[in-house]
Amino acid sequence: MRWMRWTVWGGFWLAVLVPPAPAQQAAEPPPVSEQTEECLGCHESDTPGIVADWRTSRHARTSPAMALARPPLERRLSATDVPVERRGVAVGCFECHGLNPERHQDNFEHFGFRINTVVSPNDCRTCHPTEAGQYLASKKAFAVDNLEQNPLYHTLVETITATRTVRDGRPVPAPTGDNTRNKTCFACHGTRVEAKGLKTVVVDGDELRVPNLTNWPNQGVGRINPDGTQGSCAACHSRHGFSIEMARKPYTCAQCHLAPDVPAWEVYRESKHGNLFSTHQAGWNFDAVPWRVGTDFRAPTCAACHMALLAAPDGEPIVQRNHDFGGRLWVRIFGLITSHPQPKYGGTFTIRNAEGLPLPTTLDGKPALEHLIDAAEQARRQGEMKKVCLACHGTSWADGHFAQMARLNADTDKMVLAATDLVKRAWELKLADPANPFDEAIERKWVTQWLFYANSVRYSGAMGGPDYAAFKYGWWDLTRNLEEMADSIELKAKARR
Length: 497
Description:
The protein has 497 residues and is an alpha+beta fold.
């Protein structure tokens, strides 16, 4: 294998072939297990794209034994007790799809092997126990329950996904089947995947008996898997390449974190960090572990701020890897009503505020403190995020950014509380029915205030995309929406008189 670099000679750019440095030499790939060889024998022709993805993956090029031989900081697995029979072979089809068969509803006989259709985080735990444990404590892992088991969020989902027909000149909602929910809210949050016996499929003229899976396919972050576990590692590390490069690039987060409700991608793209990423990413090393600031990359992506193992150019760690994506967050800028301290646990559906509502704050903004992290934990988490900032910025810059963000959150909260006062007035005057707080025009304007416009401003304050705090779902819309809510109440009240 040879490598190329560019040089100037005689006033012209020339491509020069040079031998790779020893660190660049590819290690001899490990053997493939007999079981995986049999899988590849059929799937090379039946699903060639999947096999091609796997062959270019690190799983195909390494074994757990090879990974454990690396220095601790450079390892991409956290287990030290990988089963003996799996240590010396590549991490192939059978090594993932043959794990924990006793736990999987979707386990079935397949050409002499017992195979699971769905690989769950509990299976990934075999080599990545620390990462799986961190993820399973996160809000992402509880993404399904946080929608389904929170009565208010459940009502919101049912309201916005309901099919509507027109009767007597008014839209009338009707319950929607699973398909619409699964392709909207639960496409990102995840579905409940269960095996309901077997079904027959035809592949190249052959009949095969395979698990009959409900709500499949889905790769949502909180997916409930047939083994009863939560989450999908493939949401970020897509099958079957399991690329750390993919997880580190913001395009992956942009699958779900999009305007108008979670405008993280658009705000980042507009920010100075996003500008630097767009301009220089071609020259960055997205595969290095640890990820060295200033050497491997020169501006943060979502992963750099929220979860990656970062190091200085000399390899000294700055922050540790954390697959709980809220682990460096001290304030929650997304959510119903106002910003508030991060919740103590990922299952936020268990929270009840002083009004008895399943919300982290009351309608007038008082936080449910017993369910939220305390001041000491907020300071610790902000300190972790500050370490990321200080890898490029000075202390005064970082401190100033956090202070500006806090003030903007407080100002935005006031705009949300003003809208809440208006919708409460509409309820008091019986101009709207609070039984379902999401289905009437003025209630939808209230939802828009905190779910779209306030989120846009807060994300902009956190990440630096200024127009999303001003004219793109920002302060312009916060103000306009308040005026329209007030006008609507006044017109309806006059009409009633």
